[in-house]
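hey team, just a heads up i'm posting the complex here instead of the shared drive bc the drive is being weird again. everything in one block, sequence lines first with there labels, then the predicted structure for the whole assembly after. its two chains so it's a bit long, scroll down
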Amino acid sequence: MITLNHVSKSFEGREVLSDISAVFEKGKTNLIIGQSGSGKTVLLKSIVGLHDINEGEIYFNDILFNKLNFSGKKEIRKKMGMLFQGSALFDSSTVEENVMFPLDMFTDMTKEEKLDRVNFCLNRVNIINSIIYSLQKLVVV
Amino acid sequence: MKIFHLFGEYILLLVKVFTKPERGKIYYSLIVKEIDKLGIHSIGIVAIISAFMGAVITLQTAYNTENPFLPEYLIGLAARDSILLEFSSTIIGLILAGKVGSNIASELGTMRVTEQIDALEIMGVNSASYLILPKIVATILFNPFLTMLSIVIGIIGGWSVGVFTGVVTTQSYIEGIRYAFIPYYITYAIIKTIVFAFLITTISAFYGYRVQGGSLEVGQASTRAVVMSSVFVLLFNLILTQLLLS
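-- predicted structure starts here --
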């Protein structure tokens, strides 16, 4: 469960988030809807710790996430997933290398095991040879 | 006040860069890739500039020492000391500040604006260490080789042009190269190169890593990285010369 208590965030004096409180319960799908520039992305990036908030608290279960140090945040971030607006694929790498990256970083799998896993994941989203914009999202998923 | 703020941010980034890497094996392959990209791909420009630099130093020294009372070997001696003490390390440092500095700043800046750095952070990867540390290690390991190469090519360039134009004979030039040689000068050039490599890489990475905005800001960050790297190379050249040669 993620809990936001009175979260505020501003950039160079310009307030983007003001006194936001919300609870995101486990197993539920939540929607954040707002006009362009209203702060949806800033809120999401604040929740996952990409932006440091100015005021308030963000809890992951009972852990006060926004007060954790870098290594503390790192451990929780390993359990997070986020789909970026622009896909955020490593554009100088191949699809295979993109999908394999977390396996390289966090597992001790052999090359063959990693390739099997990558092929399994790519087959699940039906990516064969080419990548167009809409399919980029599938690579990230 | 802004300068202190920037310096603080730079130090904080370095602290993040030099935290223990997640997986050493991955870093090893990244360092090899960076050596290829930042070092081996710079050999061409270093060789061309060094050859012309050595040639010009030899010609200028020859025209300024046209005096029957001055021995001809002075041309080789002046060329050697100029190349060894100053030109190879500092000029190559400045050239690399332009080539490598803009490369690093634009690469990291583009990764920042396309959210690739954010994606690394979300995965729990220390993005600063993963992206910047291999570049620092690669340039510190490889740039001394570039400086040595520059010294050799500079001296050969000076000799070939000197002999071709007839301002010095091969024998006099070699005599000058060997005359009163102090091996410490090579150590001095390598120390300077290592310091410059660290400055160029970290300053450029700093400006690239903190880009906010879009392609316009990436270009601005790239320019700023080159300018600041060059300024700090010159500043530390002065400091190191005073510290190491006084």
